[in-house]
Amino acid sequence: MNRPLPQRMYLLGCAVDGDRPVIAAARFRGELMRAAALAELSLRGLVTYRRGKAAGVPGTSVDDPFLASVLRYAPADRPRRWVSLISHDAHTAEAFVRGQLAEAGAVSVDPRNPLQGAEVLVRDREAVRGLRNEVRDAVIGGRDVAELPVDRLLTAVLAAEAEVDTVLTLSERWTHRKRLKSLAAHVEPVAPGLTIALRTANATARSYNGGWS
């Protein structure tokens, strides 16, 4: 699936095995969208990490509006800690990414239930199922980590940290905790400390509002 990491992470929240492929309610989704954006920017070489803080690379830009908004909060002349970058505007991140996917035709938003919020339907169930299976395979498939694409490893690690149960259940995360730790170590050089920062941001969100954006 050729989409930026935040959009892929959002789609992975889809309950694709039910009668209707809808996006399941999930905690920490705003923080996850921000962390995924930072991972994507790091993969593209647009963010650097030094002395415990991250900053944009001078003279660089990105076309994707959500990635650009995250990058603007990490200017080259003002490095910030990962936790700050993840938590900033996390409450608006989910809606931002959902809007991008709706505009691209990947999801449709049904606002009929004002009490429970809009229902988000995924258009291409099979594409999301294929993405989910790839990410799950990185964790439970037993393949050599070195053989797997870095972005897939990042997706798996972020999904586990953000407790995306549609990808890995709590039981699976516990069973494969050593494998997940190995994947996290493998992607650590891409964005040093990012996954730990996501864990910290999620803990803060949990204490503040239960983790719901």
From TrEMBL:
Keywords from the named record: Golgi apparatus, Lipid-binding, Membrane
Membrane topology: Peripheral membrane protein
Superkingdom, natural source: Bacteria
Localization in the cell: Golgi apparatus membrane
UniProt cross-references to InterPro entries, sorted A to Z: GPP34-like (IPR008628), GPP34-like_sf (IPR038261)
Keyword Ribonucleoprotein in record: no
Regions crossing the membrane: none
Full protein name: GPP34 family phosphoprotein
